[in-house]
Design a protein that fits this description.
It is built from 14 helices and ten strands. By secondary structure, the protein is α/β, with parallel strands linked by helices. The strands form two sheets. Strands 5, 6, 7, 8, 9 and 10 form a six-stranded mixed sheet that branches. Strands 2-1-3-4 form a four-stranded parallel sheet, sandwiched between helices. The radius of gyration is 20 Å and the shape is globular.
């Protein structure tokens, strides 16, 4: 308790009305946007979902953005916390505000409109609104160029597996948005959010493409083991050798590299070389 009080006092004494110089970011997309705006030098800490750019992974971590510890954030003496609207717990963010730390919760829905809003909010908070406009224009152009590439119309599912139990992406997720923009048909479009899905369940869905995050491939023991799993092995995706490993943040975070994510999927050979009827 004494340590916590000391941290609070130190933060309060160090705050000023000047532009933020010590920023903590909560959420992988939030962190990536800050760096894309050329403001990465102001970031003094981030969370475990901040996987890109590499510089962000070298900073002090404050845990996972959905369960941030108050003391861990205060120890970094931030004058601004940029948080995904999904960050929490709410009490921690409230306490930070109460001790004088500016907390800005930014839009974080799986949509292009939300991405545009998020970039604008972060750029404004960092005092670089014109850079925000420039970044969004670049992102929008790259997304459109990627969308203009031929679409396969193949059925697909996106999986992540960090704890031994695969979860699959349904509607209202960043993963679903990326599948749609890449011209793929999510076989779980009627499902909301992420839910557990067994290998047998995947087999029953019979997707022609399986997209899986890089970390999930490692957790599963490698790509060849995935191809041999009962259930997965029976899918059209496995028969077509179309289990596609993808950077975690590209697959799960709607960020500045959205156009790159769309292009990556569309240009993967087992997807690219199929033409819609």
């Amino acid at each position: 308790m004494k340590r916590l009080l000391g941290l609070i006092l130190g933060v309060c004494l160090g705050l000023s009305a000047q532009a933020a110089e010590r920023v903590v970011t909560l959420g992988g997309s939030v962190t990536e946007i800050v760096y894309a705006l050329g403001q990465g030098g102001k970031v003094v800490g981030d969370d475990l979902s901040s996987l890109y750019p590499e510089a962000a992974t070298k900073l002090p971590r404050v845990g996972y953005y959905r369960s941030v510890p108050l003391e861990g954030v205060l120890a970094l003496k931030p004058d601004l916390v940029l948080a995904s609207e999904q960050a929490g717990p709410p009490d921690t963010l409230k306490r930070l505000s109460e001790v004088g730390v500016k907390v800005l919760r930014v839009s974080d829905e799986p949509s292009l409109h939300s991405l545009e809003t998020r970039i604008g909010q972060i750029a404004q908070a960092l005092g670089v609104p014109s850079e925000g406009e420039k970044l969004w224009a670049e992102v929008r152009t790259k997304v459109q160029e990627a969308q203009d590439l031929p679409a396969s119309g193949l059925s697909a599912v996106l999986l992540m597996n960090r704890s031994g139990a695969p979860q699959a992406a349904g509607a209202d997720t960043s993963a679903d948005l990326i599948l749609q923009l890449a011209g793929l048909k999510n076989v779980l479009a009627e499902q909301q959010g992420y839910k557990p899905l067994s290998a047998e369940g995947i087999g029953a869905l019979a997707p022609e493409v399986i997209v899986i995050t890089d970390a999930s491939v490692l957790a599963s023991g490698g790509m060849e083991k995935l191809y041999q799993q009962p259930g997965l092995a029976s899918t059209p995706a496995a028969r077509r050798r179309c289990i596609v490993a993808m950077d975690d943040l590209l697959a799960l975070g709607t960020g500045p590299r959205l156009g790159e994510a769309i292009r990556f999927l569309k240009q993967t050979p087992c997807i690219r070389d199929v033409h819609s009827p």
